[in-house]
Every structure is written in structure tokens, then in C-alpha cells.
Amino acid sequence: MLSNKLASAITLCISLLSPPTTAGVIFGSDGNLGGGYRWDADHYEIGGRERSLNGGLRYSMQGGSLTTYRDLFNWDITPTLEAFGITVNQAFDAWQSVDPVTGLTTSLNFVDDSATTQVIGNGFGTVNINGAEIDLLASNAGDAGTRATSYFNASGHEVTLTSGTTNYSNSGAIIGADININNNQGAIYSLDFFGRLLTHEIGHALGLGDVEDFNGNGFIDDNYDDSDKLGTLTNSWGLLVDPLNPAASVGLTQFAPNIVTTAAIQTPGVNILMESQGLGIASGNPVTNKVPLTNDDYGMRQFLYPTLYAAQVPEPSTLAIFSLAILLFLRRSKVTSS
Ligand SMILES: [Zn+2]
Fold first, then answer.
1. Residue in 300, 301, 219 with CA at minimum distance from that of residue 262
2. pLDDT by residue (tens digit) across 162-172?
3. In angstroms, what is the span from residue 209 Cα to ligand 1's centroid?
């Protein structure tokens, strides 16, 4: 249970180094899978503002258009309007992608509302819930870091989960998020990096924390083992989430920060998008990857926005048999045609 007062959650994302990553973190947890903040799946209004997944999550860009927003930043090579638009769309689309391992889908949906809703923000490292549900802003962090903050405010009302569970009390409701991307004159962005940073910040606006767990919430994982950091921090666990009651998921544990440490998360080969330090960028998850979610990111999406639906994922064994069949067919064809 969360208190009724407004709560705000914060994240600082530093981007220069790229150590690797691993598990999932929610804000405001009770240390035992309860708590966290989500957008309400059911229509919800506060002070005349619609604040829920109903109708999609509306986002708005500072300046009211792609051109204006692009031109608030400094670029190594200024992207064309088309390329910038594609990059912004891809950052949101990544969160709507089907988990390639489990086939889990999502009902998350985003709507560009820039033309009709003006952003309202209070600067780097802050949030103002007015404006769109997610405001994309440019603000000066006071240094040249290519980094951003994503803060949201939440209320303690009971939410409806995307799986259909009503009056879910083990969660707070997000009621407005601001993503502030540093536009200090010294902060020079490549388009690919800007896209990765935005994708990471959208994760925060959805309620995912940095996996380094700076806020002391503890990693959610199924099987963390200090003697096999790489293996246990990269495996898929989204199917272990109880979609009707995530806090009661059997087989998931919230590991305290002194167990799954920042150092563990930096294990080479662990390249989680929600890593604050490095954003998961590594050879296994290059900055050019437009769908950079890993098993842990998909697991966290399922934890916060559970779905009952999975797309069909081909079994590797079926694929192997299929390939073998084609191979046999080809060989036979060759024989008969010769
Ligand atoms: Zn972050």
C-alpha cells in the first residue's frame, strides 16, 4: 500500500561510459514485490486532466513540433526532420514491441499530442504534471553531459491493471511525467545516442527504475546467483509474472541492493536498457539497436503492465526440424532433377 500523498520518483542518467547491465527495478516498492508505480489502465482524471492508459499515453514535444524540438539540441550531424521523427517514434515503439523470447505482447500505446498540448515543465531534474501525460523537454543541466532526467508524480489511488484486475492496491498511479534532456551548449548528440537516451527515459516515465538501484528498491529477478552473474542476470523471467497480481508472482524475488550490487550489474554481457550508466550500450546491444529492450526490461514491462496474451514464438526445435525438412527437400529435388 502506498500513501495517498503525491510521490515523485527520480532518475539521473549518465551516459558516457558503457558498462553492462541486468535486472528490473520498480520505484516505491515494499521490498517484497509490492508497491511500484504504474499508469492506470482505466480512465482516470485528476483536476480535469486525463491521466491513464485510456486513449493511449499522450506525449508532447517542447515547441510543439519535431522541428522546434530537434533544434533545441546540439548535434554532431544535424538530423533531417524525417530522421529525427523516425528516431522519436522508434523510442516509443520499442516499448510496444513483442518480447521476442516469451512472445508477451503489450497494450501500451503512445499518441503524439504535440500539436494540441503545450508542454509544461520546471527544468532539469523536476516534474510538473501539467501539459501532456509525458512532456518531452529540453533544459540545461549545467554541464556538458549527454544525459536526461525523467521524473513523475503519482497518486495513491487504486489502479486497474492492463490484465484487467481492478482495484489493485499494491501500486501507486502515475499522473504525469517530464523527460528533460540536457541541451547545454556542450552536450553534443548523435542521433542514435539521443534515441537510446529517450528510449531509456520513456522507461522511467512508465515506472521502471534504473537497475543500479540508486533508490534502494532492490532488483526483481527470478534466480540471481552471485556465482553466475551473467547467466542469472540475462535470462528471461517475464512468464513468471502473475499477470493478475504481480506482487504475488511465484518464483520472483526482490533482491536487496547489498545482494545484487551495482558492480554485479556491470558484469560484461549484461546490457540492460534500464542501466543508468551506459544505457545498456555495448557490443551485445549496440547504440544502433532500435529495440534495445533485454529480457529484464521485458520482464519489468510485464510486471508493471501485465498482459494475458503472448504472440506465438517459434520453438527453436521446431525451427530446426523445419530447416532440416527444407534441407532434405532441397537435396531430394537436386537428386530428382539431376
Ligand atoms: Zn535512468
1. 219
2. 999 999 988 89
3. 7
